[in-house]
Design goal:
heterodimer, A: about 300 residues, mainly alpha, 12 helices, B: about 240 residues, six-stranded mixed sheet, five-stranded antiparallel sheet, globular
Chain lengths: ~300, ~240
């Protein structure tokens, strides 16, 4: 709570003033003078508080307005017929289909392989696993273009792995490359959310389950997964949102081939040159989708906090 | 049938705490008392197998659970010890019956589904918990949780029982009732039972034998009367208020 000096001072002063007899003594005048001085100080204090609150509010409002402006622009400059006409553009449906297929595949990989990894990270205190955790979080902060170059060097035509590919074949410019790029940039979000959900499980529950003789997989499946489920779902939604928006690494590693590697963000980029309306309509679709995902994540995490993961 | 004895000698350190504990427990409760940070909970985790001492030996009857000299370290899952932690650690997403069935299925002892259900029913009946069978564990009162945790731990027929502060979660009135119930119930169990507490009244009511732990060392053991006759330290004297 914020300390409010005007409140603690005011009642005492006002009561005394009112209780003072009409013919005031010398003591009484001295008290009155003190009360008057106090009232002046209070007024100054309130002015100052109003000014400072206003200053803070102004800074906050400025940033919020800036953040909201692009969204307002996106939604207000298109009429309903424009929106529908934009969606009818030939780039739209192949890109939407490809985005849904590739993100479903990348999300499945992320959840299936990321859950054991997150469990391992949450269960062990070993120092080198903290290093693993840091490396895993790196894709969150590195620029997408760097991720694209790194993917090319790791899996592209000139990589060490290329020796294993069939002659004349390369993974670059395939739909698989799109999925790999999405996994690379989105997995950290899931692994981080999942391992923090696992860490919040009361360790006694795990110990007790083990004391009955439960095997490691049984402990994970029957105890840890149900308790961490809301956190895992939230992580999966975040990870999916990131994969849906993936642009830079895909462009560099998988290219921009219609129907094969052109996902929604790439279609927006391409449409921008020919038909702004199509780009705008696709953008609106992506923003609405992102909004739904965000609300989902927040709801799940709030539910998780209420349950407290039984800690 | 004579119950196996639980014997332990534990040395080394747990975190910053140097460790030097010896204890022996036959059928019936042994109470471990000591100030906060004396290593009471660590002692239970060491016996359970969640922590390993640097040196020492743990035997349960003829079976060696841990021996640093010969490199024996039976994994936690195979020690057949019942563990009831301070807040009971019931699986909150499961019902009371499912909590017990989970224990039975995990142990692999109960066999087919029908046998599991039958043994779960028996375990519930033993602690008069039939009426709660369908309730979610998260929705139980403290006393109910404790009885469910006991029923669950005992359902897999452990060879010894470890209880951490079983009465810490209760207010004074409920505590007296629960203490009386625990004293009579645990007194009838014919397996070694180690109970950690920081409360003198609990120790007096529950423990035929008492071990005093101070700063990781077992400084004295004996009955309440023996401890009162010759308290080995200021803590013991204050704890017993003699």
């Amino acid at each position: 709570m914020i300390f409010d000096p005007t409140r603690s001072v005011l009642p005492e002063g006002t009561i005394r003033e009112g209780a003072l007899p009409a013919g005031a003594t010398r003591e009484g005048t001295a008290r009155e003078a003190a009360n008057g001085e106090r009232a002046t100080r209070e007024r100054a204090l309130r002015r100052r508080q109003r000014f400072e609150h206003g200053l803070l509010g102004l800074a906050a409002a400025l940033l919020f307005a800036f953040m909201a402006a692009p969204l307002v622009g996106l939604f207000t400059t298109a009429s309903w017929p424009d929106f529908l006409a934009g969606l009818a553009h030939p780039l739209v449906w192949p890109a939407l289909r490809l985005s849904l297929v590739t993100t479903a595949a990348s999300l499945a990989c992320v959840v299936l392989l990321g859950t054991p990894l997150a469990w391992l990270l949450a269960r062990s205190e070993r120092g080198w696993l903290r290093l693993v955790e840091t490396v895993l979080q790196l894709p969150i902060v590195i620029p997408p273009a760097v991720a694209g170059i790194a993917m090319l060097l790791a899996f592209g035509r000139r990589s060490l792995l290329a020796a294993l590919y069939p002659a004349g074949w390369s993974i670059t410019f395939t739909t698989t490359a799109v999925v790999l790029a999405q996994i690379f940039v989105s997995a950290p979000f899931f692994v981080q959310a999942a391992s923090s959900a696992f860490r919040r499980i009361d360790p006694h529950l795990i110990l007790v389950a083990r004391s009955f003789g439960a095997s490691p997989l049984r402990v994970l499946w029957r105890v840890a997964l149900p308790l961490a489920a809301p956190g895992l779902w939230a992580g999966a939604l975040l990870s999916w949102a990131r994969a849906l928006g993936e642009f830079g690494a895909t462009l560099m590693f998988a290219g921009n081939l219609e129907g094969r590697t052109q996902t929604l963000p790439l279609a927006i980029y391409t449409a921008l040159e020919a038909d702004l309306r199509a780009a705008q309509s696709l953008s609106i679709v992506l923003v609405l989708l992102a909004l739904v995902l965000l609300v989902g994540v927040r709801t799940l995490l709030a539910a998780f906090d209420r349950v407290g993961a039984s800690r | 049938m004579t119950a196996p004895r639980l014997r332990a000698r534990l040395e080394g350190r747990v975190g910053p705490l140097p460790l030097h504990i010896e204890l022996e427990c036959g059928a019936g409760p042994l109470v471990v008392v000591g100030p906060n940070g004396a290593g009471k909970t660590s002692l239970l985790l060491l016996l359970l197998g969640a922590l390993q001492p640097e040196r020492g030996r743990i035997e349960l009857g003829e079976r060696v659970l841990f021996d640093s000299a010969s490199g024996v370290d039976v994994p936690l899952e195979a020690r057949e010890l019942g563990y009831v932690p301070q807040h009971y650690a019931l699986f909150p997403q499961l019902s009371v019956r499912e909590n017990i069935e989970f224990a039975l299925t995990s142990s692999g002892l109960a066999g087919p589904r029908a046998a599991v259900q039958e043994r779960a029913r028996a375990a519930l009946a033993d602690l008069q918990l039939e009426a709660l069978a369908g309730r979610r564990a998260a929705a139980l009162s403290g006393g109910e949780k404790q009885r469910v945790a006991l029923a669950r731990a005992l359902s897999v027929r452990p060879r010894a029982l470890l209880l951490d502060e079983p009465l810490a979660a209760f207010d004074i009135a409920a505590r007296r009732l629960t203490r009386a119930f625990l004293a009579s119930y645990l007194g009838r169990l014919a397996i070694p039972t180690i109970i950690v507490t920081h409360d003198a009244a609990d120790a007096h009511a529950l423990g035929q034998q008492i071990v005093v732990l101070e700063a990781g060392r077992s400084v004295q053991s004996g009955s309440w009367a023996e401890l009162a006759a010759q308290p080995a330290s200021d803590f013991v004297r204050e704890f017993l208020r003699v």
